[in-house]
Amino acid sequence: MNSAAAVNRMVVFGDACGSGTMGLEAKRRMRNAMYGAFTEAYSAVGVDMRRIHQEDRGDGILAALDPGVPPTLMVGTWTDTLFQSLREHNAGSAHRLRLRIGMNAGPVLDDGRGLVGRAVDLAARLCDSPTAKRTMELAPGSDLLLVVSDWLYTNVVAEGGRYVEPETYRSARVRFKETDEKAWFHIPRLPVPTLPEDRPDDLPGAGQGRGAGTPGAADAPGAPTGGGPVQGDGPPPSAPPRTGTQINARGDVAAFENNVFHAPVTGIRKDRGTGAPDPGDAA
Length: 283
Fold this sequence. Notes:
By secondary structure, this protein is an alpha+beta fold. It is 24% helix and 24% strand. The chain contains five helices and eleven strands, in the order E-H-E-E-H-E-E-H-H-E-H-E-E-E-E-E. The chain is globular.
């Protein structure tokens, strides 16, 4: 398998919440609604399904888009359309469909059996991490959670755009399997999401946290992501200034200009030792 054949692509990993409690017929309806919502969202940004590699994950979907699809559309119009589709479905359904979505970008290889690459691994980790699951639990009235990699936030979300509101994102550290990354969390129609660190009393053994829903120093660009001094009530932190279009991590370099990816991007734990698990498995 030749890694030189890898292509920089936007990766989307979606997973339905609570599907394990559903019966067979409820799962069938859930899957139909999930695929319908994804298709409607792609249609809203003018993306032909032939430009998407999509794999079934039972109660979820893994997709990698054609490199020419502007990532701003995915974090903006695509996400907003997906959210509206979920609202419409849930308004008339006995079983709510709630989705967690992980997004990342980087080199992806199709080996004939499926998608391979650290960009795929990280998108899956962001979606399935305990932090993402707990964040969704803390927003029981919400139908969609979007978690984006730090690279995607800095280079795409922070630039803004139609239906893109950087100030409604909050950062948290995602430590899951071999992943140890800063990520950004967004729930449509909420000023900012409540993160697990805001509810330390609900997490046995957790360190001291801040008041629920109150962004603190950890959300400021460049600040540590863990606890921090208590901040008073006030507006959410402003989006960080763009730090440039190039990122270098252990020899992996990526450039992003005019909504197009030009060179490799990776996003899984950068201090991984030689004995670390092989990141090729996105499970």
